[in-house]
Structure formats: structure tokens, C-alpha cells
Amino acid sequence: MYVCVCNAIRDKDLRAAALLCAGDAEAVYAMLGFAPKCRQCLADAQVMVEEARKAELLPVCLPD
Ligand code: FES
């Protein structure tokens, strides 16, 4: 799905990029080569960025 319609940024691309740079959603947009336009997506994008980074820190449980 698209998280940012103005820039056609998909959630999977945002989540992947969030792991490669520091900063807020706007910084992640910049890393992808975009800048917010209407800015209506930024709150949801920020949640996705934070979720992606937290998920990366969770330990992986492997079966015995
Ligand atoms: S929907 Fe992201 S800047 Fe408009």
C-alpha cells in the first residue's frame, strides 16, 4: 500500500529505508529522494518508521 500518495512511497519501501537511516519520517523520505508535499501522511509514516525500527530490535525466537 502507499503511505504517501503525493510521492508514491510504499509502506514496504518506507519500512526498509527506516532501517538504513536515522531521523524522523521526513528524514526517511529525504533518503528515498522525496520531500513531503501535502504532509497529510507524515503522522502515519512516523508510526511506520518507529514500528520498523522496534521490530528490528526484537529478539528472534527459534524453535529447538
Ligand atoms: S500524501 Fe505524503 S506528502 Fe501528501
Order of helices and strands: EEHHH
CATH architecture designation: Orthogonal Bundle
**Topology-level CATH name:** Arc Repressor Mutant, subunit A
List of distinct ligands in this structure = FE2/S2 (inorganic) cluster
Adjacency order of strands in the biggest sheet: 1-2
- Per CATH, the class reads Mainly Alpha
Give me the Rg, rounded: 13 Å
* Termini gap: 36 Å
| General form | elongated
Give a short account of the largest sheet: 2 strands, antiparallel
Mean pLDDT: 93
Write down the domain tally: 1
Number of strands: 2
Residues in helices, as a percent range: 40-55%
Total helical segments: 3
Determine the structural class based on helices, strands and strand pairing. Answer: mainly alpha
As residue ranges, the low-confidence spans are none
What features would you highlight for this structure?
64 residues; binds FE2/S2 (inorganic) cluster; 3 helices; Arc Repressor Mutant, subunit A; mainly alpha; two-stranded antiparallel ribbon
